[in-house]
Amino acid sequence: MADLFQLESTADVAAGSSGSRVGTALDTGVLRRKYDFGDRVSELNIASDPFFRMVSKLAKKPTDDPEFKFTERRPSWHKRYAYVVGHAQTANTAVVDQATLTAAHVQAGSTYHFLMGTDYKSSGNIGSVYGQSGTEISVGDSGTKPEFFLPGQIVKINMSDDVLAAADTSVNAEDYLLARIEAVSTVASVYVNLECTIVRTMATQTKVEICSYYAASDALNGQDISGKSVANYLEPKRCYVVGNSHAQGSGYPETWKDQPFSTGYGRTQIWKTAMAMDNTTRATVLKYEPNEFARVWREKLIEHKWDIEQSVLFGSQADIGGEWYTQGAIDFISSFGNVFSLAIASKTQDDFLDDLSSFLDPRYNNANASLFFVDTKTYNWLHKLGGYFSNNLEISPNFRADMALTGKKKAFGVDISVISTPYGDMNIARNIHLDGSPIKILACNMKYCKYRPLVGNGLNRDTSVYVGVQTLENSGVDRRVDLIQTEAGMEWQMPEAHAYWS
Fold first, then answer.
1. Is 400 contained in some domain?
2. How far apart are CA 481 and CA 472, in angstroms?
């Protein structure tokens, strides 16, 4: 039996040769059929702006100048360290350029000289950042003279029995000397010679290799340390001030001060999104959403935020042809921040924890203030990694494995996964804008980045809607144009507090 209704796709009204109406080509059932469209239409909804949403909510700081400046301050209390780049028994003896220290020369109470250099600028306390060979500050660079050494201080010098090779990526500190500084003198403008009294000699006379040397005969000065692990390679080589000692009845000691400040600047960028529609369309009532102008307007708002999201991720600060561009997270980190590698097929939990130990060093950064934005593939990898350890190695609610997936939450409409690590909780958000890019994980310390909308003289240039920039009344054109506009920039501070994995 034939179907009662023939669902042809022809037009309701057929036209004759002159264009006049000549009736319908549709079956009577099709013509009169109401169909059940319901009262709503499905809409594809995607997370459009997780990074911009978080930074604009957590770190908004208006500026009254489109070119804004800021000051960074880095403390010095944890930077009283240097590396041994030479040593000798007497001041008149040429500094020995080898790692081995003769045990007989460093008996308790004996005098010995250490030539010391460090790896950060005294002005601003600016040091190397992991993976940044272009901005590396090597031991002995201009401006790195260790100014903090004073008579009376005690210096700890790490020793080992390992004869290190240039390719070694880790150092074992197995013993140490303690030396009290008696006098300090400048050498070649960037080093200081410490005349010391040995307070503690090596406990074992086989531990005679100075850890500060990267190889048996080469001091660390001038060597590339930008990609070296702080925990595994640099820390064992560093010789820290570990207190001071003075005789009874002695006077006040010498003092020193640092210059911990450095400055940077940023620029605002102007984003515009227009919405135009003729008045005939505006006056036409449609199915589902009667007001077409209102529907498109909502999408234009999302489009505007989408554009800003792309800029604050991938933008580069520039002034080209009178147009200013603000700096995005990736460009900033690529130039100044921590840069790690991530090959999911071969990256192990051990490797990733080593990366975190360099990035989340409590002297520079902390996990609680950092948000990790990841592409979809890495998002899956992290959940698999965290889920495996949580499900298989959890002993009790109070004792769980490292890298365990411990919860989920929502912040400002953004879904956040929480993965527990030895360095604190990683707050992870998927960001589809990173899909297809070389950046797999983008980690930003929200304490050290700011969203800077231009606000001044009674004008707020943060995201604003300008209604009727063109109308029939003001232009004679039978349409209406509205405008969404934002003028703002990104401020990036403390490059050591931001990172990406590519």
1. yes
2. 10
